[in-house]
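To: structure subgroup
Subject: Chain for Friday's discussion

All,

I'm putting the inputs and outputs inline so they're searchable in the archive.
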Amino acid sequence: MDSPFKGANDIFQTKEPFEEAYHPDEILERDEEIETFAAALQDVLDGFGPPNVFIYGQTGVGKTATTHKVTEYLEADATEVGVNLTVFSINCNKRDTTYKVITHLANELYSEKTFKQGHHPDTLWDHIYTALDELGGSILVVLDEIDKLGEDEELLYEFPRANAMGELEHAKVGIIGISNNFKFRESLSPRVKSTLTEREIQFSPYDANELRTILDYYADLVFYENVLSDDVVPLCAAFTAQDTGDARMGLDLLETAGDIARHEDADHVVEEHVRLARSQVDRANTERIVNNRLTVQMQAVLVATTFLDVDQSADAKVKTIYSFYKHLCDRLDIDVLSESRVRDHLDTLDMFGLLETEEVNLGRRGGRSYIYSIVDEPRVVIETLYNMDRFEDLFGDSAEEFLDTYEADTRSDIQTKLGL
């Protein structure tokens, strides 16, 4: 049997810039946000201590990359002017409780010790404060995906009050929180809001021109010269801008188009490769968001909306979705949220590009209302959820069997099938 692998690669000269951990030398199309960010952190260089700064924006709009670059500049300038500054970066997607965060932080601070599960939180806090006071000066703790902490607010209450409570004498701690959830601050308790007194910076989705600039930059890094036809980057930018404005999605589209061309042993990446890539990326993007970005409650709201979307005789309004959602919560043993919180989750699912919203006029008595529908094929959402333990039992023996009759079902059929 001949080798199934391809011969010489004439498409990619490197793929490193496509990796999640890659930090570009230059942050493009974020000059205004960088300037605002720098103004918020100027107090550090002026010797007034670190502020609390919260960065908001959907996935792939440059929040983390910009924060990394701005703190890099800040550390360099602090060294130059003689300001004592230490920066810690922690991803809350992996460490989604205060206890996990402070365990990680303690291990960062003490190279000669190892703190594992089992240490009492008070002991960890004592070690952390002792080490931070020895470092002295300004301490910035960057918490990426801070919304993953959920209702666990201890960290956000503890650090801003550390000096007032006498825990720190020679150091001041500021928090930089990065979140995909625009409603995160609103969910905080009044005591935490008043303690944080943070500054907020919002990152908007990229438009087509901005995405074209970014994708051109990466294309020059990863592809061999003259491999891309002239319409590839503009088409990737246009598709992405129409969908989410998420640069990460644009890069995935660009890489997948290149992979398809490589698999075909093509000499160039052309428009047809981009169109084929779009279908693959859309499915992968939905799976990634559902699996990694949504809370259990958001997933439940998505399930309810997906099932309602099939019934053309019923508009998927908030009240209708909420009624179905409550039945699902009972079936899945999930706490039932208020209707207003479900509305917030619908807005978040819209922001992630999983739902689209249409405002309709229901007449003199009905007023105006919003109708929600699934952006992707419901099949993609159901297949993704079926692979998750919590939702597997909803679909009987297999998702495929459920899907065989799904598209012909009405809402009442689905409710009966799900045992709701």
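Points worth raising on Friday:
The longest strand covers residues 171-179.
The chain is about 50% helix and 10% strand.

D.
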